[in-house]
Amino acid sequence: MNSGQVATHRSRDEIADAIRTLTRADWARLRKIANYYARPQIGPKDLLQEAFARALDGRTCPAHVDVVKFLAEAMRSIADGEGEKVEHRLPLVSIVAKTGEALPEALNHPDQSPTAEGRLIGEEEAGLLRRNILAIFDDDPVAQIIVEGMMEEMNAEELRELSGLDKTAYDSKRKLIRRRIDKQYPEGWTP
Predict the structure, then answer these.
(1) 102 beta partners
(2) Residues 50 and 34 sit within 8 Å (Cβ to Cβ)
(3) For the purposes of burial, counting CB atoms within 10 Å of the CB of 159, is it exposed (0-12), middle (13-18) or buried (19 or more)?
């Protein structure tokens, strides 16, 4: 590369050096992001490790992008991919021969859908999480409204309209919500 050319992507060595020199604040930020994007299929530690592995295995990092931001986006992408795998998984159905006898194990896959008991436990945990998160904002009814809307998967525009906040006030309230939840559950939610 001559002096007039500028690198458009970081090299593998540059990414490795940046990872080696991460500050405590960078590590805390990455762990917080990993907790946020973690899924039942991939926990926060595995998610962070996978982001490092992919970054070092050739995923291109633009030279102008901060490595922490790059790793955060990688974790989001990995988590989304894991979620899509589950979402698009074909249901497995047991196969029974005409005689009524089950076929050999290699052909007779167990049904992977959750049982009634599993669904009930999931619903109870979701209800407990909802109550605990809303309790954090007992002193702030506007934050409670926004959190409830987020739980109902409302978009930002709908949440601003529902809460009566302008964009700046809404953004400030979202930061407060994130900070309080992170303070209450620094390692993520566990029932």
Answers:
(1) 96
(2) no
(3) buried
Give the residue from 89, 82, 86 showing the smallest Cα distance to 34: 82
C-beta neighbour count of 116 within 10 angstroms: 7
Tokens of 35: 């907790």
Which is nearest to 158 in space by CA: 144, 175, 145? 145
- SS3 state at 182: helix
**Rounded to two decimals, what is the model's pTM?**
0.48
Q: Locate all alpha helices (DSSP H) within 57-166, ordered by sequence.
A: 67-87, 116-136, 141-151, 156-163
Write the pLDDT tens digit of every residue in 23-50: 998 998 898 888 888 877 788 899 999 9
Residue with tokens 């070092």: 56
Joined together, the tokens standing for residue 107 give 């052909």
